[in-house]
Automatic annotation (TrEMBL):
The chain crosses the membrane at residues 12-35, 56-84, 90-113, 205-229. InterPro entries: Tetraspanin/Peripherin, Tetraspanin_animals, Tetraspanin_CS, Tetraspanin_EC2_sf. One of its GO terms (molecular function) is lipid binding. Keywords: Adaptive immunity, Cell membrane, Disulfide bond, Immunity, Lipid-binding, Membrane, Transmembrane, Transmembrane helix. It is found in: Basolateral cell membrane; Membrane. Belongs to the tetraspanin (TM4SF) family. This is Tetraspanin. Its main location: membrane. CDD domains: CD81_like_LEL. It is a multi-pass membrane protein. GO terms for cellular component: basolateral plasma membrane. Disulfide bonds join C161-C193, C162-C182. It comes from Hucho hucho (huchen). Pfam families: Tetraspanin.
Length: 239
């Protein structure tokens, strides 16, 4: 015979929340794997030009998300088992893990908000460097120019864009009119790659942010219920 009354209700609520937390860990892990293997992002972030790798900040963040998702699933299982077994040791360990995860999530959220535009800016800088090298008429190294052209085509075909847009309209129109770098169906004056790159990563950053907010709310309830249940077990006459 274990806890009774309201504490027993909290026990099953905690088990249910932990099951949701375990599922959320699976979702985070799945989303992270999808982001890593998404055709648009992976094809762009694996590009290399003149010994320079495309910015890896986004991929590093995705690798962290994969680790977080795996840890969430382990902690969620620990919480479920601790709640059903009414183990103070397991619940205390579960609470400590949640506090660490919550602190890391808050720190990551603050860092991500402060640097939310850096990923797209880094990739835009990389794109501009390749773009200028592909159009350089004075570039004597033909292999380097061909490499730049190949990288640029991947950008244009993946994002369905062309050039830098309104900031350099003349150069962009020349690119579309006198080279084969841009898809023929794309209007260089309206579909610039700068805007496409920003839109691509902003969409994914918001998806990660919403997922993190939902997980943080679940964690707050879990920390509260785990402490209440732990105190209820300690005060139970059975123990």
């Amino acid at each position: 015979m274990g806890v009774e009354g309201c504490t027993k209700c909290i026990k099953y609520m905690l088990f249910f929340l932990n099951f949701i937390f375990w599922l959320a860990g699976g979702v985070v892990l799945g989303v992270a794997l999808w982001l890593q293997h998404d055709g648009h992002t992976s094809s762009l972030l694996e590009l290399k030009f003149d010994g320079q790798q495309a910015p890896t900040t986004f991929l590093n963040s995705v690798h962290i998300l994969i680790a977080v998702g795996a840890v969430m699933m382990v902690v969620g299982f620990l919480g479920c088992y601790g709640a059903i077994q009414e183990s103070q040791c397991l619940l205390g360990t579960f609470f400590a893990c949640l506090v660490i995860l919550f602190a890391c999530e808050v720190a990551a959220g603050i860092f991500g908000f402060m640097h939310k535009d850096s990923i797209s800016k880094e990739l835009i800088t990389f794109y501009d460097n390749v773009y200028e090298n592909s159009l350089a008429t004075t570039l004597t190294d033909q292999e380097k120019k061909q490499a730049a052209t190949a990288v640029l085509k991947v950008f244009h075909e993946t994002l369905e864009c062309c050039g830098k847009g309104f900031s350099n309209p003349l150069t962009t129109l020349i690119t579309q009119g006198f080279t084969d770098l841009c898809p023929k169906s794309i209007s260089a004056s309206t579909t610039d790659c700068h805007g496409k790159i920003r839109a691509l990563f902003n969409e994914k950053v918001y998806l990660i942010g919403i997922s993190a907010l939902i997980v943080a709310i679940i964690m707050i309830f879990e920390m509260t219920f785990s402490m209440v249940l732990c105190c209820g077990i300690r005060n139970s006459p059975v123990y």
